[in-house]
TrEMBL record:
PANTHER family: DNA REPAIR PROTEIN RECN (PTHR11059). Belongs to the RecN family. May be involved in recombinational repair of damaged DNA. SUPFAM superfamilies: P-loop containing nucleoside triphosphate hydrolases. CDD domains: ABC_RecN. GO terms for cellular component: bacterial nucleoid. It comes from Aromatoleum tolulyticum. Pfam families: SMC_N. This is DNA repair protein RecN. GO terms for molecular function: ATP binding. Residues 1-505 form the RecF/RecN/SMC N-terminal domain. The keyword Transmembrane helix does not apply. Keywords: ATP-binding, DNA damage, DNA repair, Nucleotide-binding.
Length: 554
């Protein structure tokens, strides 16, 4: 669950450090006070998109950090280990910094990460339902994604898509082979000749560096030998040899240092120089012994270099690019060879289709019970949400094989018993869509493993007794996990286990947002404000207290 949220210089928030509690919490306040801004800040910490507008006016950067308990199922712990990220004392701290120029940086438990990693970790920790989330339910792709998530079939759906694309690629290859066999034969012969030419060269990029180094050494062998001989003569031969002179001077100064310790540093320097000169002399002798003129090897290397450069020039690439060219042409040749045999391609196509159909059948089997369960649960919730006799159904209609499987997913609804089920996008009014969308979000959230659920004004478009029912739904959900809800409805706020008030105020020339945790008296005043507006009467306060009393007794 979310333990702490720290915000610095985000929009109209200057500095906030919030400690969160378990259960169902309501965030209330006047419109524009900054309630949704808190959730926007949390969304950034969870890996949401960032821009320079997130930074408070006149500041260099916005800084948001969210501290969560690690979920008990261990899924996130395993993910952190796989990413080589620490799990600090059972906590996950997600931090995001957005600079005024728009650049952003991210950390998990103090280690820099990418935005994608931050978002992936955030998916394990919290799920934010925006105030317009129900509108997405009108789209077919959103309906399909929701039922797949409800069925726990996300990975299966991805496999179906992958199998379908592989099958369709083979379909296209077979059709091309059947339509253009003559042209493919000419292209295949040319490419095969080019691949053989590169294969016979047997060249790799590492060899190019080695043979150029060897060529430089052999081409300058005479000069290297002459230089080595001269250096050996200077270092180690004759009375004036540098190595002998250094040893002699080192012995002399060593004796002097025994008398005057002030020469200790000089003794050490000369001793080291004498040792290094001896080592250089021995290494140079070994090098000279190996060095030899080899005209035959030099000619052989020059022929090799010529063959490589000629072929690189012919195919208009650098010598280092020949291996990559060989790999690319080999792949193309394999495809052309495959395309030259329509019968073999047809066999592969049939195998790919069978593999697709097998996985698609498993996806269908997973979708059916999830669709039935969601249809039943949302229909039951509609009765409580002032839609008595209404019915909701997830229709799975067979269709031609596609990247999404062998059935379409469509949400259908009947607002009252006298109406037939029709597509949600065509029949639901704004208020009905709000209630149905809320029911779907609550029902699907119950099956989610995400420990923190956040609802941002998802109760827009409802009121009265329906609002109280929504509040009780969220309160019940809060017994199983942490639930946060931004709301303008007193009936919803009264059902919360705890409540915060968000307000904005003028501070000098700045507008800032502040958060105040409310105890019983504060909650009565806030809910009375939500009930009565500007003029709060004793009657309104008694009504607010009654609402909280009902909640406390429930």
């Amino acid at each position: 669950m979310l333990r702490r949220l720290t915000i610095r210089d985000f929009v109209i928030v200057d500095r906030l450090e919030l400690e969160f509690r378990t259960g169902f919490g309501a965030l209330t306040g006047e419109t524009g006070a900054g309630k949704s801004i808190l959730l926007d800040a949390l969304g950034l910490a969870l890996g949401g998109r960032a821009d320079a507008g997130a930074v408070r006016t006149g500041r260099d950067k916005a800084d948001i950090a969210a501290e969560f308990d690690l979920p008990a199922d261990g899924g996130l712990s395993g993910w952190l280990a796989a990413q080589d990220l620490p799990a600090d004392e059972g906590m996950a701290i997600l931090r995001r910094v957005v600079e005024a120029g728009g650049r952003s940086r991210a950390w998990i438990n103090g280690v820099p990460v990418t935005q994608a990693q931050l978002r992936e970790a955030g998916d394990w920790l919290a799920d934010i339902h925006g105030q317009h989330a129900h509108h997405a339910l009108l789209r077919g792709d959103a309906q399909r994604a929701l039922i797949d998530a409800h069925a726990g079939a996300g990975a299966l759906a991805s496999e179906v898509a992958e199998r379908f694309r592989g099958w369709q690629r083979l379909v296209e290859l077979r059709r091309t082979a059947e339509q253009d066999s003559a042209a493919s034969e000419r292209e295949r012969e040319l490419l095969a000749w080019q691949v053989d030419e590169l294969r016979n060269l047997a060249f790799d990029a590492g060899e190019w560096s080695e043979i150029n180094q060897e060529h430089a050494r052999l081409a300058h062998a005479a000069g290297l030998m002459e230089g080595a001989d001269e250096a050996l003569a200077t270092l180690g031969e004759g009375e004036a040899a540098v190595s002998s002179l250094l040893r002699h001077i080192s012995v002399r100064v060593d004796a002097m240092a025994d008398i005057d310790p002030g020469l200790g540093d000089v003794r050490e320097l000369l001793s080291g120089a004498a040792i290094q000169a001896d080592e250089a002399l021995h290494a140079l002798r070994r090098y000279r012994d190996r060095l030899d003129l080899d005209p035959q090897r030099l000619a052989e290397i020059e022929r090799r270099i010529g063959a490589v450069t000629d072929l690189a020039r012919k195919y208009r690439v650098d010598p280092e690019g020949l291996p990559a060219l060989f790999d690319d042409w080999t792949r193309k040749l394999e495809e052309l060879v495959a395309r030259a045999d329509p019968v073999h391609l047809a066999e592969q196509e049939a195998q790919a289709r069978a593999a697709y159909e097998q996985v698609a059948s498993r996806l269908s089997a997973a979708r059916r019970p999830a669709a039935e369960r969601l249809s039943r649960e949302v229909s039951e919730a509609m009765q409580a949400l002032a839609m008595a006799g209404g019915q909701f159904a997830v229709a799975l209609e067979p269709c031609a094989p596609s990247v999404h499987g062998v059935e379409t997913v469509e949400f259908r609804v009947a607002a009252n018993p006298s109406q037939p089920l029709r597509p949600l996008a065509k029949v639901a009014s704004g208020g009905e869509l709000s209630r149905i969308g809320l029911a779907i979000q609550v029902m699907t959230s119950r099956d989610s493993a995400t420990p923190t659920l956040i609802f941002d004004e998802v109760d827009v478009g409802i009121g009265g007794g329906v609002a109280e029912i929504v509040g009780k739904l969220l309160h019940r959900l809060g017994r199983e996990r942490q639930v946060l809800c931004v709301t303008h409805l007193p009936q919803v706020a009264a059902c919360a286990d705890w409540q915060w008030n968000i307000a904005k105020s003028n501070r000098g020339n700045e507008v800032v947002s502040a958060v105040t945790p409310l105890e019983t008296e504060g909650r009565i005043e806030e809910i009375a404000r939500m009930l009565g507006g500007v003029n709060i009467t004793d009657t309104t306060r008694r009504h607010a207290a009654e609402m909280l009393g009902v909640n406390a007794a429930s």
